[in-house]
Amino acid sequence: MDGTFDIERASAGDIPALAFVWKDSWYESHAALSFGKEPDQTYFEARAAKLLPDCLIARKEGEPVGLVSWQENELYQLFVLPGVYGGGLAAELIERAETAMREAGHKQLFLLCRVGNDRARAFYEKQGWQVAQLADSPEGSVIGYLEDAMWRMEKYLA
């Protein structure tokens, strides 16, 4: 892939595509941290529906390859398919989400990154985010609420 992506606001018609990206990316990056539960497409479709309207979907040659969503000043979800890792898509998606949050008047942003997801943490740090503290997951895990330690990472916008 040459690094050219089409990025646009996601709509209700994109929910299956968002769920596909989220599910495949999640299995690559989070499954080992998920207490052995394997959520299915239905689980991800229900969660993807809640990302709208503050969600972008990225496509490559018409196929879904990434997503980013935010809620107020929280970078909520960021996933790209493993086949596009290293192509700059994740950085572009996070930049666009930060821009949208800045335009909404937010200067202090945060995200929650599961403790143990060292690859994601390193990526966020490369994008200028810093670990501020440890926190519990407000949503628990895929099998219900369990102690689920998260790094609360923050970024201040100029």
Q: Key terms for this structure?
A:
single chain, 158 residues, alpha+beta, 4-stranded antiparallel β-sheet, 3-stranded antiparallel β-sheet, 4 helices, 7 strands
Descriptive notes:
The protein has 158 residues and is α+β, with helices and mostly antiparallel strands. Helix content is 30%, strand content 30%. The strands form two sheets. A four-stranded antiparallel sheet has the order 1-2-3-4, with helices on both faces. A three-stranded antiparallel sheet has the order 5-7-6, with helices on one face. The longest helix has 15 residues, at 15-29. Mean pLDDT is 88; it is low at 141-146.
| Number of H/I helices | 4
- Global structural class: alpha+beta
Any idea what the shape is? globular
- Radius of gyration based on Cα positions: 15 Å
Number of strands: 7
Largest sheet: 4 strands, antiparallel
